[in-house]
Amino acid sequence: MSLPWFRCSFTEERIVLDVAPPNNDPWKTEIQWADIVRVCFEATDLYSSDTIYIFVRGRENSYPVPVDGAGGAELWDEIINRGLFDPQKAIDLMFAEGKTECWPPS
User: Fold this and answer.
1) What's the total number of domains in the chain?
2) How crowded is residue 54: how many other Cβ atoms within 10 Å of its Cβ?
3) CA atoms within 13 A on the CB side of 85
4) Range(s) of the domain holding residue 82
5) Residue 91: in which H helix or E strand, if any?
């Protein structure tokens, strides 16, 4: 499944989310890597996109990032490479369905 309306990219300093959902207003935001305090990953089924939830300092709600959006899988790899999510938990979630894990654990 591909979600062409959701695009994310990243640099050394930040993540950029560029979103133009069908039937809703488009929006764009930047997330500084240094502001990330927690990351959750929701594993779904074959018919839905897995979702990364990025929690940042100073914002109550997370930023949901569908892995099937453009750049989503690359962002997930970078999150793991930067130590923002436990690699073993990420591997376990590859085979899970209907499970959400967060790092760091609460």
Assistant:
1) 1
2) 22
3) 25
4) 3-103
5) helix 87-94
CATH number at residue 16: 2.30.29
C-alpha distances out from residue 48 to 42, 86, 89, Å? 11, 23, 20
**43-99, pLDDT tens digit by residue?**
998 788 999 999 999 999 999 999 999 999 999 999 999 999 999 999 999 888 999
For 74, the enclosing helix (H) or strand (E) is helix 72-81
Write the Ramachandran bin of 46: left for phi over 0, alpha for psi from -120 to 50, otherwise beta. alpha
Q: If you compute the radius of gyration of the chain from its CA atoms, what whole number of angstroms results?
A: 13
Q: Which of 101, 46, 106 is nearest to 79 (CA)?
A: 101
